[in-house]
Write a structure and sequence with these properties.
The structure holds two protein chains of two kinds. Chain A is 56% helix and 17% strand. Chain A is of the alpha+beta class. The model of chain A has no long low-confidence stretch (mean pLDDT 90). Chain B has ten helices and no strands. The longest helix of chain B is centred in the N-terminal third of the chain and has 46 residues. Classes of the chains: A alpha+beta, B mainly alpha. Chains A and B meet through helix 3, helix 4 and strand 3 of A and helix 2, helix 3 and helix 4 of B.
């Protein structure tokens, strides 16, 4: 799937990957690829601007940890991020249902 | 040059602060290190082009910074407005306005009064237009460079006018030391100093966010996008200026006529208001996107 097609949905997808547990950038990229069965193969570098944007918006928070001697930034969903994810899921269901009704 | 080196250079070129650069580079270094051995080349390919990612980051950061700058400026201008209103209400209510020539020097009083009359109007227009545009474009992660420049200009005009207003209030307070009661001088001085601190902080935040270089293309909006009711006047700056000057002049004339119980006084102030607005439009109209 082209990165362009993902653009409008990237924030929601990131929030969804963080819904169950905190994760760092690489793990988020892997989760996206695995859960989409390789369909979401966007340039992984574009994840970080999105992560920082979501953090500035207060939807996720982050903290440093050390892993195998390397500094690592781990992101987790905030309460307002959880609410935003719920809204996006709801919007997506309405959208997908409507598109399905037209295309089917 | 390594991918990380190129990325860091691009971030620096785009004016991203060193602390933010370091955080991003550290995150990307960890990302690359997660792919071990031969897979590193694959990881670098999957990361994308360093320049594009740095550019995307800078464009998003600048859009966010411009919007926050507009909101911070509006809040700081609110502090300045509160300081001016409280000082003038308490002066009128409990003390009584002294004549402008009853202070230390009319050379201090006149510029102070002028600043307190003109400054708030410019601040209101600049600050409100900036905040309104920031609200209207709040959902867009990236804004065109021209749009961000317009937001920054409006904020700059609003803050400068707010600083002039607050400096006028401070000057007025100083001019009437020994004439007006100590409690009023202390109250007004403290309020003005607090407002000035807020304005200077907002100005500094604007300067920091303005360091980010934006390349996103697209046109800037203008006053007519912000206020659709005025769209018919787009391309007719003289008509817009005259309409606004007449409208504000009439409002001020009626208000002052009622307040001072004198039509002559009302007309005098109404004409002054219309002239100030026309001069303001001529000088700042293009800067704040009120005319092309």
């Amino acid at each position: 799937m082209r990165a362009e097609a993902l653009k409008g949905h990237l924030d929601g997808l990131i929030l969804a990957t963080l819904a169950n547990r905190p994760a760092h950038g690489y793990a988020i990229a892997q989760t996206l690829r695995e859960r989409s069965d390789g369909a979401f193969d966007l340039p992984e570098g574009t994840l970080y601007p999105a992560l920082h944007r979501l953090e500035r918006a207060g939807l996720i928070s982050s903290e440093w940890s050390t892993e195998a001697g390397r500094r690592r930034r781990t992101y987790s969903l905030t309460r307002s991020g959880g609410r935003a994810l719920g809204e996006r899921r709801h919007e997506w269901k309405l959208f997908a249902t409507a598109v399905e009704a037209v295309l089917a | 040059m390594s991918w990380l080196g190129e990325f860091e250079d691009e971030l620096a070129t785009r004016g991203i602060r060193p602390a933010v650069r370091e955080r991003l580079v550290t995150e990307f270094a960890d990302h690359i290190a997660c792919e071990q051995g031969a897979a590193t080349a694959v990881a670098l390919t999957r990361l994308g082009v360093a320049r594009e990612i740095a550019g995307q980051y800078a464009d998003e950061l600048a859009a966010d910074g411009a919007r926050h700058g507009a909101f911070a400026a509006f809040a700081a201008l609110g502090c300045a407005a509160a300081a001016l209103v409280v000082s003038q209400l308490t002066l009128g209510q409990f003390v009584g306005y002294p004549g402008f020539d009853h202070g230390f020097s009319a050379a201090l009083a006149l510029p102070a009064i002028l600043a307190m009359l003109v400054g708030p109007q410019v601040a209101l227009v600049g600050g409100t237009l900036a905040a309104w545009r920031a609200i209207r474009r709040r959902r867009e992660p990236v804004l065109p460079a021209a749009e961000i420049a317009l937001l920054r200009r409006r904020v700059r005009v609003g803050l400068l006018a707010g600083i002039v207003t607050t400096a006028g209030l401070l000057l007025y307070t100083v001019d009437f030391i020994g004439v007006l009661p100590a409690w009023w001088l202390a109250l007004s001085g403290a309020l003005a100093a607090g407002a000035m601190a807020a304005l200077v902080a907002a100005r500094r935040a604007l300067a920091n966010s303005s360091a980010t270089v934006v390349f996103a293309s697209g046109r800037a909006g203008d006053l007519f996008d912000d206020v659709p009711a005025l769209r018919r006047l787009r391309g007719h700056p003289l008509a817009l200026c005259v309409s606004a000057a007449v409208a504000s002049g009439v409002v001020v004339t009626l208000a002052e006529w009622h307040a001072e119980r004198s039509l002559a006084e009302g007309l005098q102030r109404g004409i002054f208001e219309a002239v100030v607005l026309s001069v303001g439009f001529a000088v700042l109209g293009r800067t704040i996107g009120a005319r092309r």
